[in-house]
Design a protein that fits this description.
Largest sheet: 6 strands, parallel
Oligomer: single chain
Shape: globular
Helix content: 25-40%
Number of helices: 16
CATH architecture of the largest domain: 3-Layer(aba) Sandwich
Strand content: 15-25%
Length: 503
């Protein structure tokens, strides 16, 4: 006897009618519950990689929201190495000093090349010629565009998730490894062929509010820990106390105030470095004094941004990466604090990105040259030590792009004839602010007129260079060989510069 429902095919004549039985129509309640509890959970990363059918030569991606506290990249690569996988393309949104151990996998042949930002030891190793092919450096927006266009095809994305349920809904706002926004991870989840979530915090279904939905996740792997909390976020990011850098911050605030954009609805982005935080603090005080209410702050969000939101100085925060504990807590509780994907943030190939709505952005530099080109990838000694981040994206989108740098660091001038590496083209840079003077790009005659007579020490960029060299002398240019160790892509995919091996 059949236990299922009986259905008769009614579109046949009387003589040829057939009766079909759907077996399995009744439920075995215990087995259903077990299936629901397990969901997409698998026992180990190795099992997940086997299910994903990882093979030699594939591209594997990771995100960097756990920053220098990340444990997942090294964990995953060790497993892949033990499985005998070789010749991988590593596609992280960024690597940090904590990932130095992956260099042994480069030497052993597990990793063939890297397409993603490198910071610290991995970049240094690239500069020394370790990799057989160049590191491909992309901005946050450029990375999304490359995935969208199929230029960067990710076979398997491994996503560190501070919270996950059994079906793969992922969140970054709770758990021992909470990092806040998962804006960069969303890109990988969206475009990768297979998605593995790694978590140290399995929560009851559904994990709401979730950053990444279950529809994008194939498997969930519970582990003991995905990150070191103390190295993921800090309690407080510090405003610089250096007198010279405070001078830079004050001049930035004056430039923004007199730019012609400092009105109700003003929008901005500044980084999490000491000078940028100090500049934001100065802008904050000027907004209070002028009674200005801004529209939004975007990018990486700090506790200072949260304070400005809570004070009513801005209506919203658009968060692609939470930088500290205050930002993480705010994202979890404040309706005016919204998470955004890297595509929403900076993808020039999208139907509209946030950077195009910025009034002012404050950016750093390792070098600036006479054409206002900015280098953030290589140090003055030529070593590849930094990624691009959103530098070129925000510079292109903002109405006013302000680059801040001390006139010199150590005995090296920061304003030079020609930067060693062009990261952000001078056409998109409007103002360079140092402790000794402020240079406005000649292309921005309107801005120069706005700033004249406002107590801002305006100078030619060439004069800043000469002043720097009076303190440092003319430095010796590093020597480079023929081997290209890095390729800098502009946000639209064109190659803007190459980086050669230092000798």
């Amino acid at each position: 006897m059949h236990s299922g429902r009986k259905v008769t095919a009614m579109n046949m004549d009387a003589d040829s009618r057939k009766t079909f039985f759907f077996t399995g129509g009744s439920k075995d309640i215990p087995s259903v519950r077990k299936r629901r509890e397990k969901g997409k959970i698998v026992a180990s990363l190795e099992e997940a990689f086997r299910l994903a059918e990882v093979r030699d030569g594939m591209t594997v991606s990771f995100h960097h929201h756990l920053r220098d506290g990340d444990l997942v990249v090294n964990m995953a690569l060790d497993v892949l190495a033990d499985m005998g996988i070789r010749d991988l393309v590593l596609a992280p949104s960024a690597l940090f000093p904590v990932h130095e151990s992956l260099l042994r996998h480069v030497r052993s042949g597990v990793i063939r090349s890297i397409e993603g930002s490198v910071n610290g030891p991995v970049g240094r190793a690239a500069s020394e010629g370790l990799f057989s092919s160049p590191v491909i450096l992309r901005s946050h927006g450029g990375r999304v565009r490359a995935m969208q266009a199929g230029e960067l095809h990710v076979d398997v994305a491994v996503l560190a998730a501070p919270a996950a349920d059994a079906m793969g809904n992922l969140s970054g706002i709770s758990g021992p490894s909470a990092c806040g926004s998962l804006g960069y991870a969303f890109t990988d989840a969206q475009f990768a062929d297979r998605v593995i979530a790694v978590t140290d915090n399995v929560v009851p279904y559904p994990a709401v509010p979730f950053s990444i939905p279950q529809t994008l996740v194939d498997w969930v792997v519970p582990v003991e820990s995905i990150g070191v909390p103390e190295k993921i976020v800090s309690g407080t990011l510090r405003v610089t106390r250096d007198p010279l850098r405070l001078i830079i911050a004050e001049q930035v605030a004056k430039v923004v105030e007199e730019s012609g954009l400092f009105t109700d609805g003003f929008s901005m982005q500044a980084g999490a470095g000491g000078i940028s935080l100090a500049a934001s603090a100065c802008i904050r005080e000027r907004m209070k004094a002028a009674g200005i209410r801004g529209s939004f702050i975007s990018g990486g969000i700090t506790g200072q941004s949260v304070d400005m939101l809570q004070e009513g100085l801005f209506e919203s925060l658009l968060d692609v990466q939470s930088f500290d504990l205050e930002a993480v807590a705010s994202l979890a509780s404040n309706r005016g604090h919204a998470e955004m994907s890297a595509s929403f943030y900076a993808n020039t190939a999208s139907k509209g990105c946030t950077v195009d709505m910025l009034d002012a952005v404050v950016l750093g530099a390792t070098q600036v040259d006479l054409d206002f080109n900015v280098n953030v990838n290589t140090e003055s000694d030529g070593l590849l030590l930094h990624g691009i981040g959103g530098h070129m994206d925000t510079a292109a989108g903002a109405a006013v792009t302000v680059v801040v740098t001390p006139l010199f660091r150590g005995r090296m001038p920061m304003v030079v004839d020609r930067v060693l590496t062009v990261t952000t083209p001078g056409e998109t840079v409007d103002v360079v602010v140092t402790e000794r003077g402020v240079a406005v790009n000649p292309r921005r005659k309107d801005l120069l007129e706005n700033l004249r007579g406002k107590g801002i020490p305006l100078m030619e960029i060439g004069d800043l260079k000469k002043m720097a060299e009076e303190f440092t002398g003319i430095p010796k240019t590093p020597s480079f060989g023929e081997k290209i160790i890095g390729i800098v892509e502009y946000r639209d995919g064109t190659i803007i510069d190459t980086i050669r091996q230092r000798i």
